[in-house]
Amino acid sequence: MSEYLAESDFMVVEEGFTTGDLLKNLLMEASQRSDKRAFFVADLGDVVKKHLHFLKALPHVKPFYAVKCNSSEGVVRTLAELGAGFDCASKAEIALVQRIGVPPDKIIYTNPCKQISQIKYAASHGVKLMAFDNEVELGKVARSHPHARMVLCIATDSSGSPACLSVKFGATLQSCRHLLETAKEMNVEIVGISFHVGSGCIDPQTFIRSIADARLVFEMGAELGYRMHLLDIGGGFPGTDNSKVQFEEIATMINSALDLYFPEGCGVEIIAEPGRYYVASAFTLAVNVIDKQEVPLDQPGSDGEESGCKKSILYYLNDGIYGSFSFKFFDNICPTPILHKKPCPDQPLFSSSLWGPSCDGQDHIADSLELPELQVGDWLTFENMGAYTIAASSTFNGYQQPQINYAMSRMAWKAVQLLQRKLPQPEEEDRESMCTPLSCGWEITDTLCVTPVFAPASIT
Predict the structure, then answer these.
(1) According to its UniProt record, what is one Pfam family this protein matches (predicted)?
(2) What is the bridge-based pairing of β-strands 338-339 and 379-382?
(3) Catalytically active residues, by annotation
(4) Which of 78, 92, 188, 283 lies 20 to 30 Å from 239, alpha-carbon distance?
């Protein structure tokens, strides 16, 4: 029996039947209901595959999942079962992962600016590892959590990321010595350094510069008598194949920098805070057209007239930017819908825009889309909807958040169990029929193939 995840927590997708097939079945069922609510299909097998790929690409880095990116329980339980740690930014996130049984030594409290009550909560629940970046925070921790093990968060040049965190968080290199000296005066234990290059990083060189800066601060600490042993390289890893920078490119840069500044055997443990990397591509959203409005295009020479279109169409969906499309506040990208009903090849296209269901005029999802004419009741699906969608959604205007339907392939579920040593190792013949493992121990193909390894150890 698995510790965090049971087979009853998700739908098992058998061999030959994909999560895409499951989505089609769910859409057919939903079309028969009068209440056509938006819903997600979450492929937990994709999360498993990403975890295996992370271990292969960054063999010296232990992942601590950034709960803020997607706090849905199926994701948290899956990653806990795989042995990942958790990056929590609040009391509620700590409570979530501890409620399913995650031990405190698998948690890092990464918010550098915490309420005193939440520092005390962490102390009372055994969470010792936490971040800071200023003198005031040190004072709060010294008084409220004297047994904390602190990580100094340093600023980075995150201008190449859509979400630039260093405008708000991170100590400059010039201030680090003073903060380390102050921590010593306050008798606060400093165990390591952290940084975050910003969510959706598009400049892999930022990781190299940040790791080099962390090395400098380690040396400052050594001069002051600290024996720091932890480096947290944060997040910023892409989660989809269409990202401007691929995960493999970033991993190559990180490995080179770690070999140079924190080589294996140096006594420093390396962790990271991947968020969107794990969940972005795992979630697909299905929404329904609840209304439409046609707007005539009567200006000569307009785009609509050039393409033979005499109108543009506004479509109103049953989910919007106050719900699952809240990721637009983070990524500022226009999502591309996939039509459930395939149009005829000669069907005309119209300039179309998509709007959410609320009474707010800012509830605008996408514009300038060329779509065939849709009808009320039609379904649209959106892929790569796992990052900062569910976590940032609200019930504004009383609209319900979409239901999540979890699924996992039978092969992925077996991989989870193998990782936790719940199943015996397959016989040599069976293993060869599954796949030919790489020298690193993993092979990832269209069907997930694995060989057993131990889950990452926790930080002690």
Answers:
(1) Orn_Arg_deC_N
(2) antiparallel
(3) 359
(4) 92
> Both ends of the chain: CA-CA distance in Å?
26
Element housing 23 (H / E) = helix 19-31
Residue 381's Cβ-side half-sphere holds a number of Cα atoms within 13 Å equal to 18
Q: What CA–CA distance (Å, rounded) separates 5 from 9?
A: 7
Mean pLDDT of the chain: 85
Percent of the chain with pLDDT over 90: 63
Q: For the stretch 370-380, what's the b/e string if a residue is b when 16 or more beta carbons lie within 10 angstroms of its beta carbon?
A: ebbbbeeebbb
Q: Check residue 67 and report its DSSP letter.
A: G
User: How many C-beta atoms lie closer than 10 Å to residue 457's C-beta?
Assistant: 12
Distance CA 10, CA 25 (A): 16
- Cα separation, 272 vs 203, in Å, equals 17
Instruction: Kindly give, in sequence order, each residue whose CB lies less than 8 Å from that of residue 116, ignoring residues fewer than 6 positions away.
Output: 140, 144
- H helices present in 186-246, as ranges: 205-223
Task: List all residues 6 or more positions away from 346 whose beta carbon is below 8 Å from its beta carbon.
Answer: none
Residues 6+ away with beta carbon under 8 Å from 147:
123, 128
Q: For residues 199 and 252, give the distance between their C-alpha atoms in angstroms, rounded to a whole number.
A: 18
* pTM (predicted TM-score): 0.86
Tokens in use for 75?
A: 């994701």
What is the average pLDDT across 288-315? 73
| CA-only gyration radius of the chain, Å | 24
In order of 108, 160, 338, 350, 380, the CA distances from 320 in angstroms are: 33, 28, 16, 21, 13
Cα–Cα distance measured from residue 387 to residue 108, given in angstroms and rounded to the nearest whole number: 20
Q: Residue count of the chain, please give it.
A: 460
Mean pLDDT to the nearest integer, 92-114: 97
C-alpha span between 369 and 128 (Å, rounded): 50
CA–CA separation, 42 vs 47, rounded Å?
9
Name residues whose C-beta falls within 8 Å of residue 170's C-beta, 6 or more positions apart in sequence: 112, 133, 153, 154, 155, 156, 195, 196
Distance of CA 296 to the CA centre of its chain: 42
Helical packing angle, 173-185 and 205-223, nearest 10°: 40
